[in-house]
Design a protein that fits this description.
Elements: H1 2-12, H2 18-29, H3 38-47, H4 52-76, H5 78-88, H6 95-115, H7 120-129, H8 134-169, H9 171-192
Pfam family, one: VTT_dom
Keywords: Membrane, Transmembrane, Transmembrane helix
GO cellular component, one term: plasma membrane
Length: about 190
């Protein structure tokens, strides 16, 4: 089943609608969706390495746009939608601590958490809730999300054929490793958030 899914994503990457799917997933991941855009960016870039920079740009811009939705949820709808999403991911009891961290280290929180597998939607929603500067939120989000997606694009562009061969030979192990990274990110968020 995993092989079929991987083959489908690789084949889908050649379709004209693939960049739209990446944009939608990147947008949604920044505000409500639990799946990171890397699950599309990696196979799409492996399938079409010449589009690595385009895919990174799409992921960056749509992630920041989705982050603005997350920010709005935190600023305008925290008591209903924002709190529901925060509680859904199990971080409801830690929001006040995160809000206080913003008062002291807001720039660093966005920069560091935007690069990690810690769900970015937590940063976006809490940024709005904490009334963090919208200007700085956008600037820092562009930097951190851009760094994340462009570093991934650079690695895949440079090591693409080797990475693709490695992934295809060890698909189960790679999937398990990615799952472990996401779980570690979620656990780290519990302790750092």
């Amino acid at each position: 089943m995993l092989r079929k899914l991987y083959d489908w994503v690789i084949a889908y990457s050649a379709r004209p609608s693939a960049p739209w799917a990446l944009g939608i997933v990147s947008f949604a991941e920044s505000s409500i969706f639990p799946i990171p855009p890397d699950v599309l960016q990696v196979p799409m870039t492996l399938a079409r390495p010449e589009k690595a920079w385009t895919y990174a740009l799409i992921a960056t811009l749509s992630s920041v746009a989705g982050g603005l939705v997350g920010y709005a949820i935190g600023a305008l709808l925290y008591d209903s939608v924002g709190l529901f999403l925060i509680n859904l991911y199990g971080y409801g009891s830690k929001v006040e601590a995160f809000r206080h961290a913003y008062a002291q280290y807001g720039h660093w929180v966005i920069l560091l958490k935007g690069l990690t597998p810690i769900p970015y939607k937590l940063v976006t929603i809490t940024s709005g809730f904490a009334d963090y500067s919208l200007f700085w939120f956008v600037v820092l989000s562009l930097i951190t999300r851009g760094a994340r997606f462009f570093i991934l694009a650079a690695l895949l562009h440079h090591f693409g054929p080797v990475a693709r061969e490695f992934i295809e030979k060890r698909l189960g192990l790679v999937t398990l490793g990615l799952f472990a990274v996401v779980v570690v990110g979620l656990v780290a968020a519990v302790y750092l958030f």
